[in-house]
Amino acid sequence: MRRQTILLVIGLLFNLTTAQQKDVKQLATKFDKTLAEQFKANEPGATALVARNGEIIYKEECFRNG
Questions:
Q1: What contacts 60, CB < 8 A, 6 or more positions away?
Q2: CB count, 10 Å around CB of 3?
Q3: What is the pLDDT of residues 5-42, one digit of tens each?
Q4: What is the predicted pLDDT for the residue at 21?
Q5: Which of 11, 23, 24, 45 is least crowded, fewest Cβ atoms below 10 Å from its Cβ?
Q6: 3-state DSSP assignment of residue 50
Q7: CB-CB neighbours of 37 under 10 Å
Q8: Cα 22 from Cα 59, distance rounded (Å)
Q9: 3-state DSSP assignment of residue 44
Q10: 60 neighbors 31 (Cβ within 8 angstroms)
Q11: CA of 39: how far to CAs of 19, 28, 47, 62, in Å?
Q12: Helix (H, G, I), strand (E, B), or coil: what is residue 65?
């Protein structure tokens, strides 16, 4: 689980650095997809918060309890 979390963080940071020109809606869609792939039903979830230039651009709670 720890490895998955580290990979998720690296993936989110990579998305932010390579997609700085994309609008917030496109980024949110990518984050939603990434979280859905990482956190399957009946497994522990996560809370994700992404900020750019001090402004929160994405906030989501992923609780996958079936």
A1: 31, 32, 35, 47, 48
A2: 7
A3: 877 777 777 766 655 556 777 888 888 888 888 877 77
A4: 52
A5: 23
A6: strand
A7: 10
A8: 17
A9: strand
A10: yes
A11: 23, 16, 11, 7
A12: coil
Going by pLDDT thresholds of 50, 70 and 90, the confidence category of residue 44 is confident
What's the pLDDT at 32?
86
Tell the burial category of 34 from Cβ atoms under 10 Å away from its Cβ (0-12, 13-18, 19+). Answer: middle
Residue 61 and residue 53 in contact, taking contact as beta carbons nearer than 8 Å: no
Distance of CA 19 to the CA centre of its chain: 14
DSSP letter assigned to residue 63? E
Alpha-carbon distance 29 to 6, whole Å? 20
How far is residue 48's CA from residue 31's CA, in Å, rounded to a whole number? 9
Looking at residue 59, its amino acid is K
